[in-house]
Amino acid sequence: MRRREFITLFGGAVALPQIARAQSSPKISRLGFLGVTAAPSWASRLEALRSGLRNLGYEQGKNIVIEDLWAEEHYDRLPNLAAELVRRKVEVILTYGTPATLAAKRATRDIPIVFVYAGDAVAAGIVTSLSRPEANVTGNTYFLPELMAKRLELLKDTIPHIARVAVLVKPDNPLFEATLPVIRRAADTLKIELQQFNANGPAEFEPAIAAMVKNHVEGIVIQEDAVYLTNLKQIIDLATKQSLPIASSGEFGEAGALITYGADFHAMCRHAALYVDKILRGVKPAELPVDRATKFETVLNMRAVKALGLSVPPLALLRADRVIE
Hints:
The protein contains 13 helices and 13 strands. The chain has helices at about 5-25, 45-55, 80-85, 100-105, 145-160, 175-190, 200-215, 225-230, 230-240, 250-255, 265-280, 300-310, 315-320, and strands spanning about 30-35, 65-70, 90-95, 115-120, 135-140, 165-170, 195-200, 220, 245-250, 260-265, 290, 295-300, 320-325. The longest helix is centred in the N-terminal third of the chain and has 22 residues, at about 5-25. Mean pLDDT is about 90; it is low at about 1-15 and about 20-25.
């Protein structure tokens, strides 16, 4: 064999495995994630999402890359961040909550959007129908207005004499417009005077609670909002100093609220991975019905009961799925 032929054959033997490896390398899908607060405050839920993706065979850096952008509690930054994800040409945009999802929806009609969860997707104008989203948006919802009414009812069960309750509102969250009429109707049925107090962020929590005390409020119902959840300890500490019981979502119960009723957010985060998988396989969001949360939990915090000097009626104990001792 001549030297030139040997070099050609040898070179071919080396090149073939390289070509084979290149052909077998998995496609890396780029996902965008639009966060309302900051990454550390959402760490456990983001891990639940990643866990759901891993269960379906998606590994960060191997066949998917998640590019996350965070508004750091400033809702006015969401439109620009959503536009940035569009410029990066990600294949799917993941969001959570109403403000971020609406920002993403306004930024693109082409890139599929999966909302990990939203309080009431129809009432907020995210989708027109749960069964047929008819747009580039789908995900998980949990009917927050009804949950808020239930929290007020549970607060009344736990403190039967309560007659004046505050609802803490973040005005720039559009879902509050759908929530307030529902909770007001519940308040009328329960013979409770409902008072609205606004707070956009940490600097406004103390003045809001001081105003509640001035207006002789006897308890607080708090709606899920990303900024409220991030700063829940501050809210609970301020309310506790004024002996004001709180009814809210599950995270508040673990941090010291009296009574909570809410959906399993981590389960919804894991479930969102199924939408991503189907979309990456070619299914259009409009063909994927919005899923409704089915798991809800009532938690009674006995530490808060003792701190407030309350005597809990047997009915309230019976209605609790879990009691924090």
